[in-house]
Amino acid sequence: MPISLEEILETIRMTEVEHFDIRTVTMGINIKDCASDDLNKLKSNIYEKLMRIGSEHVASARKVESDYGLSIANKRIAVTPLSIAADGFHEEDYVEIARVMDKASDELGIDYLGGFSALVQKGWSMGELNLIKAIPEALSVTKHVCSSINVATTKAGINMDAVKLMGKIIKQTAAKTADKDAIGCAKLVVFANVPEDNPFIAGAFHGVSEPDVVVNVGLSGPGVILRAVREAPDNMDFADLSDRIRRMAFKITRAGEFIGKKVASLQNVPFGIVDISLAPTPMPGDSVADILRAMGLEDVGAAGTTAALALLNDSVKRGGLMASSNVGGMSGAFIPVSEDYGMIQAVKKGHIPIEKLEAMTCVCSVGLDMIAIPGDTSEQVISGVIADECALGIMNNKTTAVRIIPAPGKNVGDSVTFGGLLGEAPIMSVSKLDNIIFINRGGRFPAPVKGINN
Questions:
Q1: What is the model's pLDDT at position 30?
Q2: In terms of Cα–Cα distance, which of 328, 91, 105 is closest to 199?
Q3: Among residues 147, 174, 192, which one ends one of the domains?
Q4: Do 269 and 182 sit in the same domain of this protein?
């Protein structure tokens, strides 16, 4: 059913009053056909395809913004995991490819490019291992390139060798970008059960089963949901509260799909999915944490926080699925600390420790996201945090992830500041109990019984 004028006008009101925007329109581009065993030819192929296919992406998004008065915060591109298109190269070669991807991003005017990625949940090739080792240098010498590594699935279990290595890689990435508050780690995420049509950075890449080119859209909208919850009477029961959230999620999903299809149509490429995740910002009034407080909690971290987040997440999904048959990506509610004004304040007040955040990841869209920890945290502890989130992912058959920032020279009480949508992250304490023997066991953590369901 076509979107109506009334819906467009309501969306404009949501934009002006409740900070609603389209967080991203992300063009996915297949670069498998760029493969070559000659490095210079490979780089040339990737650059040429990005420039040719992505040439109208930013202009199309801006035209839609102008035509409908709705802000699109980010214009992004995601490519096939680079380890697939460029398998077999050396560590320094992947850094060169990253530079080419960054150059194309600059010239295209996009905000971020995802796909410096590898899928190693069951093992790795030499090329995949070299790409992972190249991450710290690649992210330190580029501005737009983002990296994601999938280390676990419910079907495969957990590649604990990869988990161990990623703890080291994250520490090295922090050190390489220490002069910028370890911003390289904000462009690096470790996944379990990664979705292949996710439009959100840093985890976006173009899945191997996707079309040659596609446009996916990711929503924002916490401010819109917040209004719906704040206007609900204190004695409204949970079924009715869920219905209010569902109805508002329906509206923002309709708007998001409409905008995504318009951007895709202008470029004559297929529309893919709308990711209905509630993506917060550091701006007051645009916070998932504020929604949880509006439900009746003194602050995030109070008893009942996980239940409140579960209700929010499920209600948003119900509304989105009613609004569109093209829902994909991660779809739910994000709880990134640095990118959510309410979360930032709760952490500063000491109301929400990392253990409570881990519990909340059982019912939200992703996992421990944009968490800053002391710079002297060991790589083994970071690997242990990743292992815990992977275990939650494979046991609950859901996507989980870790985007963690061990900020060099920073301790609890300090903060890292990135600005823009990446915001500010207070340094959180993390257990430093010894786990070296556990992490050093390595090998493959077996898939859970529920993964064997053929």
A1: 98
A2: 328
A3: 192
A4: no
Q: What is the CA radius of gyration of the chain?
A: 21
In terms of domains, do 170 and 250 share one? no
Query: pLDDT value at position 337?
Result: 94
Mean pLDDT by 10 residues, the chain (454 residues): 54 53 94 97 98 98 91 95 95 98 98 98 97 98 98 97 98 97 97 96 95 95 90 96 94 91 97 93 89 97 97 95 94 90 94 95 91 98 98 95 97 93 93 97 94 80
C-alpha pair distances (Å), 250 with each of 95, 233, 255, 324: 43, 21, 9, 8
Domain assignment present for residue 17? The answer is no
pLDDT at 285: 83
Among 144, 175, 192, the domain boundary falls at 192
188 and 226, same structural domain? no
Strand partners, 424: 417
Task: Give the three-state DSSP class for 447.
Answer: coil
- Residue 158: both structure tokens together: 């957990």
Place of tokens 């969306």: 11
Closest by alpha carbon to 189, among 413, 403, 453?
403
Cα–Cα distance between 341 and 426 in angstroms, integer? 11
Q: Domain holding 423: CATH number?
A: 3.20.70.20
Strand, coil or helix: 134:
helix
Are residues 346 and 276 part of one domain?
Answer: yes
Please give the Cα distance from 289 to 308 (Å, whole number): 10
Same domain, yes or no: 276 and 409: yes
Q: How far apart are CA 189 and CA 260, in angstroms?
A: 25
CB 76 within 8 A of CB 27: yes
Structural domains in the chain (count): 2
- Token pair 């240098």: residue: 137
CA distance linking residue 267 with residue 319, whole number of Å: 29
Whether residues 54 and 164 fall in one domain: yes
Name 145's bridge partners. 113
Per the CB < 8 A criterion, the answer to whether 367 and 298 are in contact is: no
238 and 357 both lie in a single domain: yes
Partners of 200 in the β-ladder: none
Is residue 212 in some structural domain? no
Write down the pTM of the prediction.
0.94
Range of the domain at 382: 219-449
The DSSP bridge pattern shows strands 157-159 and 444-445 to be antiparallel
User: Which tokens belong to 382?
Assistant: 């970071």
357 found inside a domain: yes
Within this chain, do residues 413 and 268 fall inside the same structural domain, yes or no?
A: yes
Domain annotation covers residue 201: no
Strand partners, 29: 79, 213
Does residue 116 sit in helix, strand or coil?
A: strand
